[in-house]
């Protein structure tokens, strides 16, 4: 059942990304081009996502635990540090340069565009480099498969 719910969630997410135009890098880049061909429609996509997230969190937090775990896993860090700020800035710069973010690039694999593969390859390399720099193993086995 977990696999079915995972597939269904991914299908809904990917469909929303496709319908909204988020997997079209030109649409994303035009959103960031305030002085040129600015396209404000992406703001409505993100606003809609915020509304759904706000409602979803209110519903989920009423539960004692997630559907497929014993407990909620909440990050322990409560402060803003340079890793958080730097990572967020790097993400934003990458999104602004490529027009892709990882969440939108995965459904965009279905387009067959080489740029998507290049982008996701760079994301994988960046994740691997971050793990190496932090002294973490590249591959870890989950306790629950």
Percentage beta strand:
under 5%
- The H/E string reads HHHHHH
What structural class should be given to the helix and strand makeup? mainly alpha
Distance between the termini: 14 Å
Instruction: Characterize the overall form.
Output: globular
Main sheet properties = none
Rg estimate, integer Å: 18 Å
Helical content class: 55-70%
Average pLDDT for all residues: 88
Number of helices: 6
**How many strands?**
0
Given as residue ranges, the uncertain stretches (5+ residues, pLDDT < 50) are none
Brief overview, please?
This protein has 145 residues and is mainly alpha-helical. The protein has 6 helices and no strands.
